[in-house]
Amino acid sequence: MTDLENRISDALRGGAADTSPDLFERVVESIDADRRRRRTLARAGLATVLALGAASTAVVTLTPRYPDGALAMPWWIVEVGTTLVLLALAVWLGPFIKRFGRAYAADVFHDNPLTGKSYIVLTDVVYYLIFAAYILMTATFAPVSEWNNSSTGTVTSEQVQASAIRIGGILLVIGVLHGLNIVLMPVLGRLFSMNRSLSGAPRRPGPGADEG
């Protein structure tokens, strides 16, 4: 064998010796996670399409036409459409944030992976509670005087602006809370690690650690 062939053979043998024993399990888990993520995104996309289709159908079928040919949309159609958009955002943003936050939490809570998984689950609960509370608190069941449509009951520019503020408001709230979570998570991870060190609890091996 030539010197180059010897080097290649040594490199291959060394790489095989350094391979983690749970590599296959981790690859299978990664493939399953990717499949679950794709199914979640497909369901979110389908829900969004259905919501937009329902809103478009409602606009076409329920919008009255006046004798002069002008169209006037009832105020409640915009409210229903805005609520559907908020629900679609909740369904789409949750898995999207969790997809990238899982690796970040695993790195922060590397001394105790179970704590990191529990933290992700708890933040998911908080996320959906915030979305549900925001939708319920901002829902409108009758025309508002600021919309200037109490007498006509049709859509005005003021109502459209209020709906845009509703959508922008939840994005701002989730963005601020998510930013605070990114900043505070390393602090919490450090505190958990210090607490375990002071209590003398043994470190729990991570998913890729060798079992001896």
Q: Nutshell version of this structure?
A:
The protein has five helices and no strands. The protein is an all-alpha fold. The protein starts with a helix and ends in a 13-residue tail after the last helix.
Instruction: Report the principal-axis shape.
Output: elongated
Round the Cα radius of gyration to an integer and report it: 26 Å
Largest sheet: none
CA-CA gap between termini: 38 Å
Strand/helix succession: HHHHH
**Total domains, how many?**
1
The total count of helices amounts to: 5
* Percent helix: over 70%
Structural category is mainly alpha
Q: What is the beta-strand fraction?
A: under 5%
Poorly predicted tracts of residues: 206-212
Describe the structure.
The chain has about 210 residues and is mainly α. It has one domain. The chain is about 75% helix and about 0% strand. It has 5 helices and no strands. The protein has helices at about 5-15, 25-60, 75-110, 115-140, 155-200. Helix 3 (about 75-110) packs parallel to helix 5 (about 155-200) and helix 4 (about 115-140) packs antiparallel against helix 5 (about 155-200). The two termini are about 40 Å apart.
Provide keyphrases for this structure.
elongated; mainly alpha
Tell me the layout of helices and strands.
Layout: H1 3-17, H2 23-62, H3 75-108, H4 113-138, H5 157-199
